[in-house]
Every structure is written in structure tokens, then in C-alpha cells.
Amino acid sequence: MSGCDEEARVDGLIILNDYFRIAGVDDEDGLIGACAALKQLRQENQGAYLHALKQIADASREELWRDPFSEHGIFLQELHALDPQKDNPDISAQALRLIGNCCIDNDENRELVKLVLRSVIEALEQSALVDITIGALYNIVFDNDNLAYAAASLRLHERLISLLAEKKISKDIDCEAIELLRNLLEKAVEADISALDSRKARDGMISVMSMDRFGDKLFTSDLLTAATIYLGSKALRNQEWNPELIISLMTALLNAYDCADDEGPADGREVDYESEQELRDSIRESCEKLIISLIRFSTTDQFSKIAEQDERIRGMLVTDFLNSKKEALKRCGCFLLGNTALADEVTIHMAQKTTALKGAREIIRNKSYDRETRHAAAGLLRHLARPAENRDLLLASGIITDCQRLIDDDDLQVAFAGLRVMRQMAQNHLPTCQRLLAPSSTIDWVNLATVTERCSRFDVESPFATNAVAECARLVVAVARCIVKPGPCEDASDVQQFFETGHLLNTVIGSARYSEIPFIKSDCWFGLALIASCEKSGEVMSQAFAANQLIEAIEKFSTPAVSDTGGGTGSTNELLLLPEVTEERQPVPSQVLPAQAHPAQGPSQPPPNKDRENVLFLIQHVLKSKVWMRPFVVLDYANSPQRVDIDEGKRTRLTDTRNTLLNLVE
């Protein structure tokens, strides 16, 4: 050590000793005086000032000496005056160390700390001070109320992410940098701060995720937590994305997931089993959240459009996600591919279509997968079945049997998903409907009879049973739309098989009667009206109504609780309208009622209630058919004075029902 350095060190220690001596007696004036002497030393001898500052910074690491520094803002004021761009880098570094230590849990000088924070953020621009500044920032904002101010700084977010992406932070400090960034982002989201709305920071975050650091589970866990917060933010979902970014992100997620499955220790460090397992679970959870965030992009069609344009993304979703051996990735792949626009695009490519179908069926057949995964796979199948040209392929692959596996599941949510797939297949697809009506040939044969029989045994106490039964009713109506035609039938075999299916009409009547969802009620009433219009309904239908279920459903429909001016909502709200039943005229289903002509003057007429018109149409057929007249004959007979064995209450109810039906027809 040279003589000058030794002299500076001695002068610095003298100042330091004076400070500690005065601070020890808790003399406010003495503290101010010591700081003034330190400031003068800075102007006269920077070497001595540096040594004094270093000694103070070292001492401030100990809680015994940190309190005097923290309680008196005079030191922070002095250090805030430092200019990292002009001062000696060594002095700035020691000042930053002292600032960080003084700001730990410092709520006494909150406003002053905010001012100091600005200088610290500026110090990040100096490459020589990056590591020491990260450490100071970590102490300033970690577990401190001043975090909100730091979180509001877009410049700080962008700079931190940029330094990480460019690998300008040493490995000794980058874990602290990631943890710092995570805390800043959490606070920014909590405070709804717009600092997250930065395309530059978003691109940098994806670059950070592409770093080859996934062997370090501690680093990876914090990184993915920060990325989940940032990339899942609402502001970023409104930004433009390109295929390269999506590919980089998904590749990083796959690498991170592999890291979670690696049984090795976290970056060579000893970690107990429970901590190691927590890290793995955290990584997996963050990966899944990020993948689900990609789904949210489809709300603005960005992700879907990108996937449509870039075959690499579609292939990655099918091969790397859907066909992964990891259940969570399979589930995420199903969710992503289940997006309507994306699924439609995948169905154009035969290889991807076949692979996606194979992956979804594998999930459905394996009951070891959880409910969410199997439900997602069913959603993917339903979307694959949307294009009519796909249904022949799906039917040939055995999708009906797969649907039955779902319907037989004890979880009614999974059963509901299976019914939705089956209904999608049956819509306007005659081969599927014929397959569902084919008689049982083997013990494991699946047809409409086995499906309706299964649904009739659902636990009515379950909150999901009503939805599942209603979906079964819509399946029956979908088959009826394809098979049953008003009036005479040229090919009676399919129709006869339809009417011979057990539980079929009871299911539709029950949903028409009890469902609280308007478009389901409309669908069921339309289906009943369509079925009634077929001359093949006859005796088979009357047997289904042995317990007057239809009459009770119509009676319930006619109560004041049902509006006479609306017809329900949804695309299934159709009308079979026949003002007068004759032999010459038969009803024809129509999607839309003809527009009514309105006079030039006067109020407009309310739209007709399609559900009510379909019910009236149904009653007209009841009255027209000799077989269907049976309930009315029974009513007349029950109302006769000779029937003394019928109690007065039942006689009154039957009479009221008869009058209700006749009033509706009139």
C-alpha cells in the first residue's frame, strides 16, 4: 500500500471512529457534524472518503450499526447527491452498498428512499456498477413499502430484463435479479400499473426464458413465476405477436418442463427432498399457466391467426404437447388445439388431423388421466367434428365408442363432454345417426338406446345431472332432425328404429318441461313437434306418454311463468308452424319465420313465440290422432258421474288439464 493510500485509509478511519463515537451517545448534532466532516473529506480527499465509505458500508451490514445509519436520512441525502456517471466508480459502488443496507425495512425515511431509488436506477446504466446496483436495489425494494414506487418504473423493468437477456449480470447475482424482477412484477400487477405494457420488455423476457439455465431449478422457478406474471398480463395480450416469439416461448416452456422432471439437484446445490419437490411443482405450475396464457391470446384471434399461418406452431402443438408423455402438457395441447379457429385450421392438414385424433383418443381411453385432461380431449374431438367432411373419418375411427367411454364415466362433467361430442357428430350426418340407431349386436355395442338408458340412471341429486340429461335430449333431437321427416316416410326402417328406442321421448319431454335454459327448451319443443308430425309416431309415441308426461309438460308450459312474447334464444329456436292440420298439408321445419308485414302507421307487432307455436302444433297432432286422443277419452270418462271410484281432487285436476289443452288450441 502506498503512502497516499495509507494516509487516506487513516483519515477515513478517523472520520469513521468519530462517527461511531458520536452515534454511540445518540447525539443528533454529532451525527450531522460527522456527516458534514465526511462530506468535506469527499471534496478534499476522495481516497480517504472512499475508505471511510467502505468501512461504513461494511459496518452497516451488521444490524448493530445499521440502525443509526437508517434512522438518520442525512447519510441518504449525502449519498443521493452522488452522480454515478461522474463520480469514481469505486465510490459509487460503496455508496450503493451503503444505500441498500440503509434502506432495509426503512419506513422512517420512505420519501427520501424514493429519491435515492432514482439515483440507483440511473446507476444501472453503468456497466461497471450493474452487479452492485442489483444488490442495492434488492435491499431497497425487497419486502419494503418502497416496492410500489420501483414497480411503477417502466425504465427499471426494461433495463432489468435487458440486462438479463444480454447476460450482463453475473451468475453470482442473477438469481437476486430474477427474484427482484419477480417481486417488482407482482407489485405492478397488484397495483394495476401500466409499466407492464412494453413490447420491448416482453421480447426481452422471452429471450431471458431462452437462456440455458434450466438446470438451475431455483433460477428457473423464479424466472417462470416472473414470466407468468408478465406474459399473462392483459396489456401484453393486446400486443402483436409473431411466430418466432411463440416458437421461442413454447420451446422454452418445454425445456423448463424437462428441467422439472430432472431428478438432479438444483444447479449442483444440495436441496432437501421437500424443497426440491416444491421447486418442481412450481415450475410445472408456471409452465401450465403460461401455456394457458397463450389460449387467452385467442380472444383477439392473435394466437389463432399466427398458428394458422405458421405450420411449425401447429406441428409443435400436436407433436410436442398433445403427444407428450406428460399429462399436463397433453391437457394444455388439447386446450390450445380446442380453440375453434385453430382446430379448423389443423383439420385441413391430414397428418396433423390424424395425429390430433390419435392423441385425443388415447387420453379418453386412459382413465388414469384426471377430469380436466379428459374433458379437454373431448373438447378437441368436438372441434375436430365441426367440419362435416371430418365426420366420416371420425366415425370410422370409432369415436362413438370413445364417446360412450366418456358417458360411462362416474364424473358427470366428463359424461356431459362425451354427450356433446356425440351430438356434434350427429348433427346433419346421416351415417352417424344410422350408427346410433343400429340394433345392439354385441354386449359392448353403443347406440342411442344405451346412451339414453345410461342418462336415465344419472343421479338426479347431482348438480351436473340436469345438464347431462339436457344434452342427451339435444342429442335425440339432433338425430330426429336427420332421420324424422314430416308426413309419410319413404325409408321407414331408420324412423321405426328411432321410435323403438327406449327412454328416447321421455328424455326430450323431461328437458322441455324442466330445463331452465331457453335454447334447450326451444330445441326440445321443436323436436317434439317434428316427431309428432311424422305419421310413424303413432302407437309407439302414445306408449311413451302413458303417464301423461306430455300433457303435464304442456300444462306447465301454459302457466304464466312462460312469456308469450319471446321464444327463447339460440340458433336451435326453430318453428314448425301449421295453422290447420289437414291431410293435404304437412308441416315443414324452417329456420326463420317469414317477416311480418307492418302498416306504415301504428305500433309494430311483437314477434311470435316460436316455442308456443310448436306446442300448439304438437297439440293439434294430439287431437288429430285417434291413438293420441286416448288421454282425452280417459278424461271424459273420468269426468262422468258414473266414475265414483275417482276422488274429487283427481277429477278436478284431469278436468283442468283437459280445459287447458282445449284453451291452448282455441
From TrEMBL:
Region entry Disordered, spans: 587-611
PANTHER family the record matches: RAP1 GTPASE-GDP DISSOCIATION STIMULATOR 1
Native species: Rhizodiscina lignyota
InterPro entries per the UniProt record, alphabetical: ARM-like, ARM-type_fold, RAP1GDS1
Name the record gives this protein: ARM repeat-containing protein
Region forming the signal peptide: none
Lineage, highest ranks first: Eukaryota, Fungi, Dikarya, Ascomycota, Pezizomycotina
Gene Ontology molecular-function annotations: guanyl-nucleotide exchange factor activity
